[in-house]
Amino acid sequence: MPTETLSTFQLESGAELQSVPVQYRTWGQPNERRDNAVVVCHALTGSADATQWWGDLLGSGRAFDPAEDFVICLNAPGSPYGSVSPITENPATG
Length: 94
Prior knowledge:
Layout: E1 3-10, E2 16-27, E3 37-41, E4 70-74
């Protein structure tokens, strides 16, 4: 699964995390106007692989068709599927 590293991520409390990994999956491609993006959020126990839990809605001829839509699903912070979580090593302290 692809990973993007955010330089900082500000929490609701105002605290900031540094070097935050975020894993994600995409289906389809952005169109020329870049107005076809759909961001999908998973449940607490889900992962960014929306085909595992959203298969009836995502796919050819379905509500979200990768031929028309650019679907993005990020692993939520705190999930055990590769994004930042309580077991992520702090780059400042090791």
